[in-house]
Amino acid sequence: MSARTAVHLAGQCPLDLARFTTSGLQTAFRTASTLAGVTCLGYPDQPAELDVTAAVS
User: Is the pTM of this model over 0.90?
Assistant: First the structure.
């Protein structure tokens, strides 16, 4: 199985990204992952957006 993930986190400061990287969630995104900090996402009060692609053979 191979997987690619992109995590977009909305936040106003680097501490918002640091909370994710020290949480239990970060272990699920160890390989082929991109973590990006953004100022806002598509909906009001949306804290994160995950884009996940997996291939199983």
Answer: no
Give mean pLDDT in consecutive 10-residue pieces for the chain, a chain of 57 residues. 78 72 66 78 86 81
Among 10, 2, 3, which residue's Cα sits nearest to residue 49?
Answer: 10
Residues forming a β-bridge with 55: 2
The per-residue b/e assignment along 34-55, b for 16 or more CB within 10 angstroms, e otherwise, is eeeeeeeeeeeeeeeeeeeeee
d(C-alpha 2, C-alpha 57), whole Å: 9
Beta strands in 11-43 (DSSP E): 33-38
What count of residues does the chain have? 57
Closest by CA position to 6, among listed 45, 48, 42 = 48
Return the residue matching tokens 């199985």: 1
